Amino acid sequence: MARLTIDNLRKAFAGTVAVDDFSLDVADGELVCLLGPSGSGKSTVLRMIGGFEQPSSGAIRIDGQDVTRLSPERRPTGMVFQSHALWSHMNVFNNIAFGLKLRRLSRAEIRDKVEHALELVGLAGYGTRQTFQLSGGQQQRVALARSLVLEPKILLLDEPFASLDQHLRERLREEVRDIQQRLGITTLFVTHGQDEALAMADRIVVLRNGQCEQADAPDVVYRNPQTQFVAGFIGQMNFISASVEGGRFLHPDFMLPVNVPDGPAVLAVRPEALDLASAQADQGAIVLRSTDFGSHIMVDLQLRDGTRLKAMTAPDQRWQKRASVHLNVGQFALYRDNHLLTIGQPVGGSEQAPEVEPALSV
């Protein structure tokens, strides 16, 4: 196991800043997911850790040793790429053994280590096969084995499942997580898939424009997003824009008591925090459609000002198109200029907006 320390990392390409003042400590055996949209800098951070990109400034240390200027082969890291990067002219055994041969190990040592790596990734007996005879998932297992056989201190995974179908992606991420926990290897995993991050990570680091927006455990990032960007990027989120005056969030359809300073604000509510109740015609929100996902019903709604929302309800509930409903809000967050103002549950309920019928009971 190993500890990774990143201090004030910065990378610019021809004047364009890809990573800006990024710092992170990764504990022994921890799996950290770098999550963000395309262009957020997550893969650039990973490539700098692996030595495939040189930082413009900052430092990278593994177990206290500065590896910032070391070449990839001199770093105690192993990297698995999205494209597998297997050699098609070599069979599976030789693909995995390549790095060991460069280290001039004996044939017996190489054979034992390769067979162990194949067994570890569930490909025992596949050594003589050609890589083009393997499925995409099997090729990715070979790429993982090729990294693990070198016994790196830090494992780096750059969107390794992006080219695979959903069911295979889900199965492989469970297998990789099991292997990582069994070996206790410190791992950084780059993805733009929030489901992968929530399912695999001990900690999620959300990046935006080369900077860290939030770094926390998955449940904290989901339930307590510290910026509006994180709230919208992790899971589904409803946003309602209005203003706060005198301790109340004032929307044309409802009032919500909040203890924040006056000014414009954005209310954020997850679909599962919205309960629906039937309302009289022309009151509350309008049902646009409902979709049955088996485990739940997702209801698409529209407020009278045109704001679109989603609510998650029990699978035995049915909602007619164009029906009017009241929304009962559970946990919510309030943001201003991307910064968190408060997270909480409504206290005392909502109040009727002046000169309009109440549209939301909170």
From TrEMBL:
Asked if ATP-binding is a keyword of the record, the answer is yes
Please give the superkingdom of this protein's source. Bacteria
Q: Where is the ABC transporter domain?
A: 4-234
Keywords on record = ATP-binding, Nucleotide-binding, Transport
Coiled coil residues, start to end? none
Q: Which SUPFAM superfamilies match?
A: MOP-like, P-loop containing nucleoside triphosphate hydrolases
* Record-linked Pfam families: ABC_tran (PF00005), TOBE_2 (PF08402)
GO MF annotations for this entry?
A: ATP binding
Family stated for the protein in its record: Belongs to the ABC transporter superfamily.
Q: What is this protein called?
A: ABC transporter ATP-binding protein
Q: What organism is recorded for this protein? A: Rhizobium oryzicola
